[in-house]
């Protein structure tokens, strides 16, 4: 984990619904507490981090300060592509360009264009340059950029976009931007990849597929997996057998015994899924299941504290 926080870019992905944004926020808090100027990047119309921290989000594409040393930004791929084409088109207004058939055709026909321009904006953040559309007070350079990437399949497509689009644009500024992004994503000293999974068969299988996809598309390895929502193993098999012998005919005791058995079986199943990851020699970082009505900021801080203890 210490090595992860020393990179310029940390990409988090995994199966949808496993808690990528929660873990991204927790890692952002952890890095900020260690004095690193950190920004967490959300993709699409997501602005969940600002809501989590109780602050008013800036416009899409602008940094929002969450707390000391920690910012967030939401990148809308459609808007990013529009701004990029507008920059190439000089004085053509965004309204005219967005309504033109040429823009719509290009957006649909150019493979990987939206994903590429999103990655270019992320690359600029690692350089301390997000180039806002209008003058404003900037946060400055960042020590760490955490990308809360889409689910596995879409994330791999996004990360592979420099190769996809680079096959089309071989010269000029587009080629130069593509090369810089590709160099960042392929450099183990500057970027790293982290999977987030829950201890379920489907989520673990998708993590293994992510490892294969990173090797195939980027020539990179997946080393670390955060397993979110793990249950503790409260009893050994021998202890559980002793409990089951005690219940007798009392309905309350019997209900408690059945509940203990259900929790034990579920924890054992999760342990087996984690074992699948360990057999691939991943560094597995378990995050305990939080019994809370909602996952608020104090809960995310508890997750950050738990991750910090595993360093």
What key phrases describe this protein's structure?
311 residues; 14 helices; 53% helix; Rossmann fold; 8 strands; alpha/beta; eight-stranded mixed β-sheet
Write the layout of secondary structure elements.
Layout (H helix, E strand, L loop, with lengths): L1 H4 L3 E5 L6 H14 L4 E6 L4 H6 L10 E4 L2 E6 L1 H13 L4 H6 L1 H9 L3 H14 L17 E5 L3 H8 L1 H6 L5 H15 L4 E7 L3 H18 L5 E7 L6 H10 L4 H29 L3 E6 L8 H13 L2
Parallel strand pairs: 1-5, 1-6, 2-4, 2-5, 6-7, 7-8
Antiparallel strand pairs: 3-4
Helix pairs in contact: 2-14, 4-7, 7-10, 8-11, 11-13, 12-13
Would you kindly provide a written description of the structure presented here, covering whatever features stand out?
This protein is an alpha/beta fold and 311 residues long. The protein has one domain: P-loop containing nucleotide triphosphate hydrolases (Rossmann fold, 3-Layer(aba) Sandwich). Helix content is 53%, strand content 15%. The protein is built from 14 helices and eight strands. It has an eight-stranded mixed beta sheet with strand order 3-4-2-5-1-6-7-8, with helices on both faces. β6, α11 (201-218) and β7 form a beta-alpha-beta unit. α4 packs across α7 (113-126).
